[in-house]
Amino acid sequence: MDLDTCLRLVLLLQAASCSPGLLVDVLVDRYDVPKVCPREVRTEDFIRYHFNGTFHDDGKKFDSSYDRGKAFISQVGLGRLITGMDRGLQGMCVNERRRITVPPHLAYGSIGTGCVVPPDATLVYDVLLLDVWNTEDKVQFRTISKPASCSRSTAATDFIRYHYNGTLLSGETFDSSYARNSTYDTYLGQGDLIKGLDEGLLGMCVGERRVIIIPPFLAYGENGNGTKVPPQATLVIQALMVDVFNPKDDVVVAVKEAPEGCTRRTVAGDYIRYHYNGTFQDGTPFDSSYQRNSTYNTYVGMGYVIRGMDKALQGLCAGEKRRVVIPPHLAYGEGGVGNLIPGSAVLVFDIHVIDFHNPKDPVEIRITHKPRECNTASGANDLIRYRYNCSLMDGTLLYSSDQYDSPSVTTLGANKVILGLEEGLKGMCVGERREVVIPPHWAHGENGAAGVPGSAVLLFELELMELQKGVPEGFMFVWLGDIPDPLFNALDLNGDKEVPLGESSSGCKLKRAKVVCSLGLTSTVLLKTCLMIRTGIKMGELWRTN
């Protein structure tokens, strides 16, 4: 310290001791300090603050940033402010309020500033700090929450959808996507965002929440943005990543459950029935077939569904479960679907294939057991008894003969059962068991039936219990009372061992009989004196049933 400086300091101390009201240094009153202060003002920092300036002696206001309608911006510690303020602002926190009293020698001294501040005036600044940053600052971010699994994170050239709340460093909100009830949708790394946000949103997972702090020179800089973002404002963005995809993305398929022994997979042209849950990438549901208690039914690869689903539905097995992720350019694009699906939304479908078929499919028959001896096989006009279980292809049981006291009975060719079951029952031996897959055009068609969904493929498990060969062409007579013995002799009136068409006798007396048509139709008639046989019957060819 030189002699001149030493003398000045001695004089200053003497003056202070003689005049108790004279300040030697700045007096700082921190009368409102925030509980959390992540950063304090340091030399070379830039700050943005509001203030009211008054004289110490009479409290008269000489300046105010509030009156000018904008905060004051300056750099601290480099002589751009009066010395007293350079000192008094050190260590201050955002949202802190200070009362800084500056003696004349640390303010405008014995000269003052024209007609605003008189000479030797002690000044009092009531300061509210709004912002602080440094030219060395970088974008800062802190992850608030993150999903347990993250298969993909955002990268440059990705298209993202995110929600955000935007505030200034002092806490005032300047914008919010939530207030508009719409995500902000944009490309990353293409210059569509302010630089700091372009950087701060990189590496995020869908469902991740971040707080991103952006210094002014990486935000809106000296000009600010409209009336909400002032010049040189640090921005705080609380972001939630909702969606991410790349224009080069294709459909992504993950098999969740694959049935064993899959012998056939879906191809273009097949008709498929499947259940699904549809969600967005963040897990928000938008549609579900389960809620409607009805499968979604459509053709595969023929443009009846969105392109991504058309592609994902190929190569599936009945019973298979898949998760399908479809980018928007293969779904509903930028337009979305009304209020249901927003524009540029990635869709996630968890699908379960119930069944599928092709309109050209025949009935599929698999023999699961065949007896060693099989001399007689079922055919047209045969009366059969059989056991069955009828289920959907996913195993849902619809009907079973076990629910009744006895096996089912039908006459093949009598149109008493669906066509596919008719096909499946043909050519069976007693004791034989089969699995028969019946496509809907051989079953109940698009409309279905009681308990059977429309367009359902049916699986029948069959076992032939009894077989009685069919009736010859014409009528079969079954006496309900006592049967003439021998019966043939009663019909062979002329004794030539044949009963041709038209043979009759006025002397034959036959009791009430049941007439059974070979087509399965029955009627009861009273046969009196004569009997007309539609076709000739030779000895041993007359059928008798119990």
Explain this structure to me?
- The protein is mostly beta strands and 546 residues long.
- Helix content is 11%, strand content 33%.
- The protein is built from nine helices and 29 strands.
- The model is unreliable at 1-20 and 503-546 (pLDDT under 50).
- This is peptidylprolyl isomerase.
- It catalyses: [protein]-peptidylproline (omega=180) = [protein]-peptidylproline (omega=0).
- Its main location: endoplasmic reticulum.
Summarize the structure.
Residues 1-18 form the signal peptide. This protein is mainly beta and 546 residues long.
State the distance separating the first and last CA atoms.
137 Å
* CATH domain fold name of the largest domain: Chitinase A, domain 3
Q: What is the tally of helical segments? A: 9
Report the portion of residues in β strands.
25-35%
Q: Which radius of gyration do the C-alpha atoms yield?
A: 47 Å
Structural class: mainly beta
Number of domains: 5
Task: Give the overall shape.
Answer: rod-shaped
Residue share in helices? 10-25%
